[in-house]
Write a structure and sequence with these properties.
heterodimer, A: alpha+beta, Cyclophilin, seven-stranded mixed β-barrel, six-stranded antiparallel beta sheet, 5 helices, 21 strands, about 20% helix, B: about 250 residues, alpha+beta, Gyrase A, domain 2, 2 domains, four-stranded antiparallel beta sheet, four-stranded mixed beta sheet, 13 strands, ATP-binding (chain A), nucleotide-binding (chain A)
Chain lengths: ~325, ~250
């Protein structure tokens, strides 16, 4: 049971929801940049949310399914096709052995997620199958996909097999068949351009000049091409401190916005270092992590201030929406 | 009179603040001091022994312990907001912790280092800058027991305290794009060991054949916050023998 990589795309890696428990040893969590998209992709094929899937960045790979697979694509719209025919995102798709998945141009968002019923059969490293490129661990030998790779999949689960059969029965002569339904877009919105990203003040917010505090919330920042899975390097108004000084290294998190001395902020993402020694002007709220992770390079973002209480409420709402998706899908998938 | 044994009164400077909606930071002052380190160690040990519902993990640093939690699991258990209830739990823990660790014998780990040749491209620069001979640089570097304050920057990378101030040198003006794992360097008042191959701007004076990061072991980092290390000079031949043993 495997997938063959005919061409790898720009940066295609295996990711799950990341490593837990090793940050004190300096090991980043890694995992999907847009965890909501991966979780929903997994739910669409009847997997537990944590299951490892494939993260596809900017430019899609060409992949042949060597055995029958049940798949779902979420996140960025890269115009996916099976055997040259367009397929729809955000729904389960049954693929017969030999089906070839390709992608067109990037329409919206930055990262697509490909979930497979049963997940991927690569060994976990430190409790996770997530690829961490910098240390070369997890995923497929600690690296991104290359042409000619055989990526081992775990094979259809019992539920996955039932869904696969039910879908294929709707188009028995075809190489693939997709569901006609999708999660409520109100609960699972598509990535959108140049969003506002909500954030709370960081612990060192008061170290910045009044002008810089004002600029941070009022001005636009471009996501520069010098960005990667560790973080987005942002360019906009230079953020200056009232007085220069050292900040002791301390732990940081996904969404922490640090400002190095030259004044251009960095928004930390999935592969961020566990600790940082730059002042933290803000912290993006968890409910907007997906939105942040889907911003395209070269686009502009603006930050909008919210309180910690609002951030907690937004996070609770996001999780409630995912629970609703999960319940609705469970009913759908067990009544096909 | 000098306060040798910390009392609750010395904890007035403890500060708690959120890092987003899934972490709370406990900060013990704002300077690198042994006492703050012992407080960090004490809270870390307490969390190891008494994880609370919703606790995920913690990261000790120079003066802080950052405690990550799952807000959904915390809010199931408590009426207050997840952040407030975790902060309250941590305050209660601080009343229970002791800094007795100060009195226990430190765990000293010897790190063999080959100072010289291809492993020490910047040893001559360090000697020149500090007006010491290369032998004196090595002697000063191998003399202290260094305290591992924290692990960060990269998997298994130790932030060390205790370097002799005579060895202070600036970073390289142009960082190297690849510094091999095991390289021992100096930058400013800090000395450290690169745990994985990474770009870096430290002045390199030697290399250890030990692996500081072993992703397939049960504890990936050789060193933990609170350990002490001593650098022990070895020859190139000993380096190669140890390296074969490690792999």
């Amino acid at each position: 049971m495997s997938l063959s990589v005919i061409s790898p795309g720009l940066l295609t890696t295996i990711q799950d929801l990341g490593r837990r428990g090793y940050r004190k040893e300096g090991v980043p969590t890694s995992g999907a940049m847009d965890t909501v998209a991966l979780r929903v992709a997994n739910l669409l094929v009847g997997n537990p949310e944590r299951t490892a899937g494939i993260e596809i960045t900017f430019l899609g790979p060409k992949i042949r399914f060597e055995t029958d697979h049940l798949i779902a694509l979420t996140g960025a719209d890269l115009q996916p096709k099976l055997n040259g025919e367009p397929i729809k995102m955000n729904r389960p798709v049954a693929v017969r052995a030999g089906g070839v998945l390709t992608f067109g141009g990037l329409r919206a968002g930055s990262r697509a997620y490909l979930a497979l019923s049963g997940g991927l059969a690569v060994p976990p490293v430190l409790g996770s199958q997530a690829t961490y490129l910098r240390a070369g661990i997890g995923g497929l030998g600690g690296r991104a996909f290359k042409t000619g790779d055989a990526v081992p999949s775990a094979g259809l689960t019992e539920l996955g097999r039932k869904i696969w059969q039910a879908l294929i029965a709707t188009q028995p002569a075809h190489a693939w068949a997709q569901a006609k339904w999708t999660p409520d877009p109100k609960l699972f919105p598509a990535p959108h351009e140049s969003p506002f990203v909500r954030a709370i003040r960081g612990q060192e917010y008061d170290l910045f000049s009044e002008q810089s505090q004002h600029d941070f919330w009022q001005q636009e920042f471009i996501v520069t091409s010098d960005s990667d899975r560790m973080g987005y390097r942002l360019q906009g108004p230079t953020l200056a401190r009232q007085e220069p000084g050292e900040v002791l290294s301390s732990a940081v998190a996904f969404g922490t916005i640090q400002v190095p001395n030259e004044g251009n902020p960095i928004a930390l993402l999935a592969d961020h270092q566990t600790t940082g020694g730059y002042p933290r002007i803000a912290q993006v709220v968890a409910a907007d992590f997906s939105c942040l992770a889907q911003v395209q390079l070269g686009r502009k973002i603006r930050f909008r201030e919210v309180s910690l209480a609002e951030a907690q409420e937004l996070y609770a709402q996001q999780e409630k929406a995912i629970t609703e998706i999960k319940q609705a899908l469970h009913f759908k998938l067990t009544h096909l | 009179m000098e306060n040798l044994y910390p009392t609750p009164a010395t904890r007035a400077e403890v500060q708690l603040y959120p890092l987003g909606e899934s972490a709370v930071v406990v900060q013990f002052g704002d300077a690198i001091k042994r006492h703050a380190h012992h407080e960090v160690q004490a809270l870390s040990a307490y969390l190891d022994a008494h994880p609370f519902p919703g606790f995920v993990e913690y990261v000790p640093a120079f003066t802080t312990v950052t405690v990550y939690y799952n807000p959904l699991e915390v809010s199931l258990a408590k009426e207050a907001s997840p952040s407030d209830s975790v902060a309250e739990t941590l305050k209660q823990m601080l009343l229970q912790t002791t800094t007795e660790a100060e009195n226990t014998a430190p765990h000293v780990i010897e790190i063999p280092v080959c100072y010289g040749g291809k492993f020490a491209p910047d040893l001559a620069f360090v000697a020149g800058h500090t007006h010491l001979s290369q032998e004196e640089v090595i002697a000063l570097h191998t003399q202290p027991e260094y305290l591992v304050y924290m692990i960060g920057f990269a998997p298994g990378f130790p932030y060390l305290g205790g370097m002799n101030e005579q060895l202070v040198v600036p970073r390289k003006e142009k960082p190297r794009t690849k510094v091999p794992a095991g390289s021992v360097g100096i930058a400013g008042k800090q000395t450290g060991v690169y745990s994985i191959q990474t770009p870096g701007g430290w002045q390199l004076i030697g290399r250890t054949p030990l692996r500081l990061f072993t992703p397939h072991g049960p504890t990936p980092s050789l060193l933990s916050a609170g350990d002490y290390i001593r650098f022990v000079p070895i020859t190139e031949r000993e380096y190669e023998r140890t390296q074969q043993h490690e792999s």
